[in-house]
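Subject: for your reference before the review

Hello V.,

The reviewers asked for a structural picture of the protein, and I figured it would be easier to keep everything in one thread rather than splitting it across files. Below is the amino acid sequence we used in the manuscript, unchanged from the supplementary table.
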Amino acid sequence: MIVWIKDNISTIIVCIILLLVIIAVITKMIKDKRKGKTSCGYGCDGCAMKNQCNKK
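And here is what came back from the structure prediction:
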């Protein structure tokens, strides 16, 4: 088991970093959704889909 970890340590580290980035992105999306922010980053006034998204 130790040998396998030593042989794959770089892959393990990269996977952990990617997992942390994914968790951070999802957390940010959830917080923004709770605050009522749009996912596109623009205001809804000029958007053709303003009646379809962000229904409250």
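For the response letter, the relevant points are probably these. The mean pLDDT is 84. Helices lie at 2-7, 9-35.

Happy to draft the paragraph if you're swamped.

O.
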